[in-house]
Design a protein that fits this description.
The protein starts with 10 loop residues before the first helix and ends with a helix. The longest helix is centred in the first third of the chain and has 31 residues. Helix 7 runs parallel beside helix 12 and helix 10 packs across helix 12. The chain is built from twelve helices and no strands. The chain is an all-alpha fold. About 3% of the residues have low confidence.
């Protein structure tokens, strides 16, 4: 009698044929967790809005009565867009405090034990920072419109505005994540926050065109992603002549200048986000 033996299928072949697990579910879980920690109550969303809204609806109208229009643009509308350049960096930088809290409370060890890429933790935090920033920007623009600011509602212009604001938020959160994983204490992080989120705002054409700055400061302003983001946002909703973009590039083709500025902000976003992921990965193994 001949015995017939069968060889079990290769486990390697079976594993290779099995579908790869989706990262969407763990990403959604990480994002929900961060949202629950950073925006549990309306107060945590509204409080960061107070200073920008007060600046936009109280200080800007008062300045508008004194200064009038800026290159044919209503000054209140000019400053309202400029205030977006203050709100987004502040919100994204404050989001970095949650990274320090996770590290100090020990929650990060539990997150790292999950069978997901470590970069997914950064992307989950980033998604919440983008969502909260979008909500706050919408509230700021709405308050400015109720106060009398005038914006162009064309789809193309809104597209430029949204793209610039989104890339700026990604860049600023990348900076926040990197700094949070490099500093030792939360107090040190808070101390460095104004230098990163607020100081560039005064030189980026937020309150006046960068052409009003001394030549060396104007050159410095052109290297800031915030300068390009503000010029692009204004081009989208209030500055159809692209005067802000012309101050940066000195060209006559508005669409080309807008594309160049968007490329600059997107490059900053990609660079700072990649640095933040690398920094987080290195800090996680310490």
């Amino acid at each position: 009698m001949t015995a017939i033996t069968t060889t079990p299928p290769s486990t390697t072949l079976a594993a290779s044929r099995s579908p790869k697990p989706s990262l969407l579910t763990p990403f959604a879980t990480l994002a929900r967790r961060r949202f629950a920690l950073s925006a549990r109550t309306p107060r945590e969303v509204v409080v960061p809005l107070l200073t920008p809204i007060l600046f936009s609806v109280v200080i800007a109208p008062a300045l508008a009565k004194v200064t009038g229009a800026v290159r044919g643009i209503d000054y209140m509308s000019f400053v309202a867009v400029g205030t977006v350049g203050l709100l987004v960096p502040i919100n994204c930088m404050f989001a970095g405090i949650g990274v320090i809290v996770d590290r100090e409370s020990g929650a990060r060890r539990d997150l790292l034990a999950a069978p997901v890429p470590r970069s997914l933790i950064v992307f989950g935090n980033l998604a919440v920072a983008l969502a909260v920033s979008a909500l706050q920007v919408a509230a700021l623009v709405g308050a400015a419109m109720l106060r009398g600011a005038q914006f162009d509602g064309r789809a193309t212009g809104i597209g430029w505005f949204v793209a610039a604001a989104a890339c700026l938020a990604v860049a600023m959160y990348g900076a926040a994540e990197t700094l949070a994983n490099r500093v030792a204490k939360q107090e040190e992080y808070v101390g460095a926050l104004p230098a990163i989120a607020i100081v560039p705002w005064f030189f980026a054409g937020s309150l006046f065109p960068i052409s009003a700055l001394p030549a060396w400061l104007a050159a410095l302003a052109k290297a800031l992603p915030l300068t390009h983001a503000l010029a692009l946002m204004r081009y989208g909703v209030i500055d159809g002549r692209a005067t802000g973009l012309h101050d940066i590039w000195g060209m006559s083709n508005a669409s080309a200048m807008a594309a160049l500025s968007l490329a600059v902000v997107a490059a900053y976003a990609a660079l700072l986000l990649s640095v933040s992921i690398r920094t987080f990965t290195r800090a996680a193994v310490r």
